[in-house]
Structure formats: structure tokens, C-alpha cells
Amino acid sequence: MTYMEALGIITKRESLGIVPGLARIYRLLEKMGNPQNELKIIHIAGTNGKGTVSAMLADAITRAGFTTGLFTSPWVTDYREQIQIDGAFISKKDFSSYIEKYRDNDCTEFEFLTAVMYKYFFDRRVDYAVVECGMGGLEDATNAICTPELAVITSVSVDHTNFLGDTLDEIALNKAGIIKKNGRVVLYPNPKTHNLFQTQCKKCNSVLYSVDDAGDSRLNNIRTVKTALDVLGIRSPVKEVALPARQEYIGQNIMLDGAHNPDGIKALIKHLPKREITAVIGMMRDKNVRECIKMIAPLCKKIITTTPSNPRAMIAQELKAIAKMYCKDVEAVEQPIDAVHTADYDFLLVCGSFYLARDVRKELLPYKM
């Protein structure tokens, strides 16, 4: 089986959407010999920052001399970036082999990918597997595990309300589902839900390590990683890791960011330059679109709305109607790449979705660097 054939098989399952529950992946992992039960897993949940924390933590553990698996999502540059060992993507050959061997299952795309990740990490005998939840925690496919070596919970805010609940407490409780019996938990500063996580740890007889608030999301992420390393007994300096579409500069005049909820937009705003900003924005309709636009639009001289390549995307014209409430100069351009080329700017911000970042990043790199 070629890599492109394997990629087609798994991505075709995106049409199944998000289906809560662990029964399907448990069946597939059973066929694989339950590799997840043999791994030292560092399980990471949260609304914002979990990808950054996961990457920094994996990097630090690798530099300490351990073979380290890293599982993150969604992808931006290459589908295989979601499964890495010591910074190297799973090979096309290995990826294709696993897809071909285990294609007979009823899993969703993310469930299938998660199972492949656990099997690959087991086969490669990684010392640690840093595993980022896809969504929530309790019924996330990555949670088909026993008590992990360490659970880490990053910044928690309201997002994915269709699946996780309408209130902050409901969402936090879902993410607390990665807390298992007799475990260890590192908690990013979450003052509004701290007591909830503390209660869950007590119920599970798990030890809670709370991170002191530095007053800045970037510094809090670093502190969270340092605390996790201390708990694991691993001595390694923490370095910030450049990730695609996380306040990513392309040249001097373009920033690409996947922030798609109010807390993410709030963190983004703190790092925007004091320049005239033209923004290309695309978002999923199941996000808190109005609140995000209300926050970012007043900072923009012009906004070009567009439609990311995802069935859940809000169409450009609909997003334009919302943006017009907060910015005078708004234009709708349906295709993301056309939207980028249409922009006349001093500083260009492309934001609102990792799917949008995926659509335009390759086009921007040769275009402006």
C-alpha cells in the first residue's frame, strides 16, 4: 500500500465526524495487543496551550536522553506531524503499514490514528509517550489507557460545547476524566475550576501539583512544563518550541495563529505588534464566533473573511456579517488562498482556525520569506 492510499483510507473517515465513546478504539487496541498498557504515558488535556505544553515537554525529555513519542493534533504542515519520535515524523512506510494491517475496524479517523500511535510507540519502545487529547478528556480516544505516568491539564475555558457541556464546570469535569486512580496530576493555573480538579484528585487518590500563576499564558505554559519535569524526576532545561500556527511569524509582516476561542484570542492579542493590521479570518461555526470577532476586529484596519476547508466552517459571507458589526472595512473572499492574495497590508494576521492555517501556510512560506 502506498502512503497516499493509506492517507486516503484514514482521512476518508473524517466524514464520520466526532463520535464520543471508547468502545470502538478499545476493540481496535485489543486487536493490537493493547500496546497502550505497556507505555509510560504523559497525558495532556486542556482547552488552550496543550499542544505547546506537549511539544515543550517532549522536547525537554528528548534532550534529557530519553526516546520520546509525541502525539498532537490537528496537523498543519503534514499529516504525519501528529505522530513523532524525538522530533521525527512517523515514516510514510511505517504509517502505510499500520493502516493496511489494521484497516478493518469501525473507528473514526481520530480513533484510528490514536490506535496507530499507541502501537507505533510500543513497537519503537519509547521511554515516554507524550499524548495530547484531541478534545475533552473523559471520552477522548487517547483516554483508552490505565493510570498514566502523569496527567497534565492546561488552561481550561469554554469550547466544544456541543460535546463537552455548556458551562465551564461541565467542560472542566470532562477534561478531569484523564485523572485516574493513584495518579499524579499537574494543573496549570485555573482559578475558576481549581477546586473541581482538586476534588477529582481526592476522589481518585491522586496527588495534585498546582502551578503558580505568572500572569501570562506563555510563562504559565513554561511553568507547567517545569513542574511536570520535576514530578517525573527528569532534569532538563525547558526551551520554547516554535510550532506552526502558534503566533508564528512568516517573515516580518505576517503572523499565522490557530486561536479559535476567546481565551486563545485573548492570548494572541497580547502578542500582536502595534501596527496597522489586516486580518484574514476563517472559523468553524461551532465556535464562539461572535465573541472572538468582537475581541479581534476592533484591532484591525481591514478584515477579509474566508471559508476554511472543513465541513464545519462558517461560510465567508456569514462571517462577514458578524465582522461588519465591529470593523468598518470587511470583505468576503470564499477561497482562503485567494483571500491571502487579495490582502493589501502593512501587517497581515491570519487567524481563527488551524484548518485555515493548513489551507494557506504552504502558500505563504515561499510567498513572503
Provide keyphrases for this structure.
alpha/beta, six-stranded mixed β-sheet, 14 helices, 38% helix
Task: Give a summary of the structure in a few sentences.
This protein is an alpha/beta fold. It contains 14 helices and 14 strands. Helix 3 (50-63) crosses helix 9 and helix 4 (92-101) packs across helix 5.
Please tell me about this protein's structure.
- By secondary structure, the chain is an alpha/beta fold.
- The protein is 38% helix and 15% strand.
- It has 14 helices and 14 strands.
- The strands form two sheets. It has an eight-stranded mixed β-sheet, with helices on both faces. A six-stranded mixed β-sheet has the order 9-10-14-11-12-13.
- A hairpin with a 3-residue loop joins strand 9 (248-250) and strand 10.
- Helix 2 (23-31) runs parallel beside helix 5, helix 3 (50-63) crosses helix 9 and helix 10 (262-269) packs parallel to helix 11 (289-296).
- It starts with a helix and ends with a helix.
- The mean pLDDT is 93.
